[in-house]
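Contributing: when you submit paired examples, paste them exactly as shown. First protein:
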Amino acid sequence: MKVFDIYNILDKLSPFSLQEKWDNAGLLVGSMDDEIKSVYISIDLDEALVDEMEENSLVITHHPLIFSGLKRVNYDSYSTKLLKKLIKKDISLISMHTNIDKTHLNKYVAQDILGLKVLNSEEFVSYANVNMSFDDLVKDISKKLNLKTTKAVRCKDYINTVAIVTGAGMSLLNEVQADCFLTGDIKYHDAMEAKARGISLIDIRHYESERYFSTLIEGLLSEHLKKNELKAIITASQNPFEFFIEGETIE
C-alpha cells in the first residue's frame, strides 16, 4: 500500500482543504509514492516514539511536526531532531489537525468519550445539553477524562448547556453560546474574560482531551487497512507535563 492510498482515504473522510490558513496539515514528510509496511497513529511525535517505529512506515499525527517554514535544519530543535530520524528510517508523516477538529474530533470526544448528546456543531464548537449542577459536571468530566486535578471557573451553580472544543479553544470564546465551555490551555486572563461574560469554564487540558485522536482515526481506517492486510498501531507520545500535589506526582 502506498502513502497516496491512505492520504486519499483521509482526504475523503476529512478534507485537508478544510484546515485553517495558519495550519499545516497534510503530507509533511515522505512521498505519495512511498510503499509502507506499517501504520502508526499518535497525537504527537517524540524521540522515543520514533525510535520504536519500523522503517518504511507511515505515522499519522494530530499535531503537525512543522508549523512554519524552516530556515535551517541543524538537528537542535524539536522538529528538526525528529525530521532527521524520520528521514533516516524512511518514515512518512501525515498530520490531520484543524480539518479533523472540524469534521470529527470535537464531536467524537463529546459523544463517545464524555457521553454527551451533541445537539449541533458549528465548525470547531460542539454543543450539548447536560442539565446538572456545576459540581456534578466537573466530577463527571474529570472522571471520564481521568483528570486527578481539574481547573475550573464557576459562574453558575447549575449548567444547562455546554460547548466543547478539544485542545486549545479559548480563542473561540466570542462564539460560545452556552452556560459552560469545556476546552484546554485556559490561562488566567482567559478565565477573567469568561467570568466577565458569565460563562463557566472547565479545563479539559490539551493532551488529555485530544489523545483520543488515535482511536478515532483507527476506527475510521480499520476497514480500509484490513483489505490491504495492514493494521494501525495506536501509540502515543508522552505528555510533557507532570502533575503534583504537595510535591508528589499524581500522574
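Second protein:
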Amino acid sequence: MTNITSNSDEANLYIGIANLKLQCDQIVLPYGIHIERTFAHIMSPIMMAFAPPKPKGHHPAPWKAVQGGFDQDISAQIIIPKKAGTTHAERMLIASTVTLLLRLWYNPAITMIAGSNTSFSTMKEAPETTTLIFPIQFQQRKFQISMVGSDTPCNNLDWITDNLEKAIKLMKESTDFQLAASAIDTGQFIENQALTMVSLWGALEAIFSPDKRELRFRVSALIASYIYPTGQERHTSQKRIAKLYDKRSAAAHGKPSHSNEDLLATFEILRGVLIKFIQEGRVPTKEELEERMFGVES
C-alpha cells in the first residue's frame, strides 16, 4: 500500500467512492469524518516499454499506449482527517469501515475506487507534483448485488453514526469480524461463484462452528438462533440455512449445485450477522452462541 506523506490539510485521507448517490452535498460523521458529493472520472490506461530500465532510471523509449486499463466514475468522497487516525494505515481502516457500513445499510455495490492526499473536488486546481492517487478496488464485480433504490438519503444516517465507533473497534480487535467483513466485501469480485460460496460460508463457519462434529446442523442452528428469536421463524430459518450449507458443501467438493438465489441468500445471511455484531458491539463467544441456541439469554 502506498503511504501518503504531506503537510497541513494534505495529511487528510480522501477516498473516492463509486455507486454512492447522495441526495445532499455533505454528511458529517463522528471523528470529524465527512462524506461529500463530488464527481471525478479516474482513468488508468496501459503503457508498455520494451527494454529493461537503466540503473536508477526509467525504461528507455519507445513507450507505447495499448488498449486496456480501467476507468470508473467517482460520485462521492470520504474525508478522513489526520486527527481521526495517527497513521495512514489507521485512516485506511476507518475508511474501509465507513464503506462497510454504507454497503451493509444502503448499497453493497458501493466501492472504494482510489485514495488520495488531495480532495477529488479540488484536485483539478492542485499542482500535479503534489497530488498522489493510489487505486484500491478497480476489479469488475462478477456477482453484482444492490439494494432496491439508488439514492442514499442524507436524513437517515443515524444507524451509521450510532454504530461507527463500535464497528471500528470490531475491525481492530476481532479476527472473526475482520474475516466476515472481508468475505462480504470481496465476494462480489471473485470470478468463480463456487469459490464465493465457499468463502462466505468459511467466514460463517469460523464464527458459528464450535467443533467439527455435525457441522451442518450446528452451524445452521447457531446462525438461526443468533439472528432470529425463539419460535417458528427460528425453526424455519434453521432448515433454510441448512439447505444453503448443503450448497456450500457441494461447491467445496467440486460439484456446485447452487443457484444465484442461493448465493444471494448466503450474502444476506452474512449481512444480517454482521449488522447484529455491529449493533451489539461484539462477536459472541462459542459458549454464548450455544446458550442462545438453548434459550439461555444472557
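If you have annotations for the second protein, write them as plain sentences, like these:
The radius of gyration is 22 Å.
Residues 1-10 have pLDDT under 50 and may be disordered.
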